[in-house]
Specification:
Layout: E1 26-27, E2 42-53, E3 56-65, E4 72-77, E5 84-85, E6 92-93, H1 97-100, E7 105-113, E8 116-124, E9 128-135, E10 141-143, E11 152-157, E12 166-172, E13 183-188, E14 195-201, E15 215-218, E16 223-225, E17 228-239, E18 242-252, E19 260-263, H2 274-277, E20 285-292, E21 298-305, E22 309-316, H3 317-326
Parallel strand pairs: 6-10
Antiparallel strand pairs: 1-22, 2-3, 3-4, 4-5, 7-8, 8-9, 9-10, 11-12, 12-13, 13-14, 15-17, 16-17, 17-18, 18-19, 20-21, 21-22
Length: 330
């Protein structure tokens, strides 16, 4: 059996796998857990990040307004299902006013490293790049330098230093809805200067795994296991009806995480349900956060549905690693 390296999280959200379920990931029966009008002005709440915090959970949520401005908002929950999200977006402070200028902010991730919570998001600075900030309490937020030059999306940190470096995955892009995209790993010693860029993995051409043939991008913070870093990511195919976003998984080397040990040829979650297929952007399942219990191997995954609402799904570390090994991408 595979083992999660980390802490126990006995009170995380959970539902047992339904009898007869054939997929390695199953949905919460009360989805969506966050509707589109969860804040005073929100048009949609999706592609958001959740972490254990205090005696419950905290999160940073993408809440597009009814004027369709994109920003990120703090929120809190006792059970990880019912959320109180602020009507006021995150207010950053920092040393350089140039970096604090707001164009847009979306698709956040949150990663606890050492003594604080780091937030990464797609930050508008003459095009999309990766913004970085930290907080101790989800009340005061200190913004650091943007990690990369535009154009870039999907900045996802690893939850600990690897060797001498902190590391972040990203997906270089263009200014629009990128019709391409591979995942890279970048490294830093100080969270200011990023380099030592390494190619990890890319879209799959041909029919070997067509659901991820247009582009891919990293999803939640990777989960450390005794077999490697468990990465959940999104993959996109271009169809006659536009882009379709599905979810896959891979296993990365613990010491050199740009080296892929396993990768599933089949997706683990796809837009099947009405709330995933119908919305502002149809046919999207977009994973952004997980909760993981080291004692049981259980994983709860938060994902955006049709760029409109937030869903919750469940799996285990054994389910995903077994699935990859039974359906390997060759």
């Amino acid at each position: 059996m595979s083992k999660i390296i980390g802490k126990a999280l006995p009170n995380m959200p959970w539902q047992d796998k339904p009898e007869g379920e054939k997929m390695p990931v199953w949905r919460y029966t009360e989805n969506p857990i966050i509707g589109r009008h969860a804040t005073k002005r929100s048009n949609s709440v999706f592609n958001s990040a959740v972490v254990p915090f205090g005696d419950g959970y905290a999160g940073i949520f993408r809440c597009d307004s009814r004027s369709i401005s994109m920003d990120i908002f703090p929120g809190f929950s006792k059970d990880g299902i019912h959320w109180d999200i602020s009507d006021t977006p995150v207010q950053f402070e920092g040393a350089d006013p140039e970096i604090l200028k707001r164009e847009y902010r979306y698709d956040p991730r949150v990663c606890f490293i050492e003594d604080r919570y780091y937030i990464t998001w797609c930050n508008g600075y003459h095009g999309p790049t990766i913004g970085v900030a930290y907080t101790y309490d989800f009340k005061k937020f200190v913004q650091l330098e943007n990690a990369f030059l535009p154009y870039n999306r999907n900045g996802v940190l690893f939850p600990r230093k690897i060797g001498d470096y902190y590391m972040m995955m990203s997906r270089p892009s263009d200014t629009g809805h990128t019709p391409f995209g591979d995942i890279y790993v970048s490294q830093t010693k100080d969270f200011e200067f990023w380099g030592r860029h390494r190619y990890m993995m890319g879209a799959v051409k041909g029919d070997a795994s067509a659901w991820q043939s247009t582009k891919i991008g990293p999803g939640p913070i990777p989960i450390e296991t005794d077999e490697g870093w468990l990465l959940i990511y999104h993959g996109v195919i271009t169809t006659c009806n536009g882009y379709v976003y599905r979810v896959g998984c891979a296993l990365l080397d613990l010491d050199e995480p740009w080296k892929v040990k396993e990768r599933s040829s089949d997706y683990i979650l796809a837009p099947y349900e009405p709330y995933e297929c119908n919305g502002d952007v149809p046919n999207v399942t977009f994973p952004c956060a997980t909760l993981a219990d080291a004692d049981t191997g259980r994983i709860a995954m938060y994902y955006g549905c049709a760029d409109t609402v937030t869903g919750l799904a469940f799996t285990t570390v054994d389910e995903l690693i077994t699935y990859m090994k039974e359906n390997p991408l060759k």
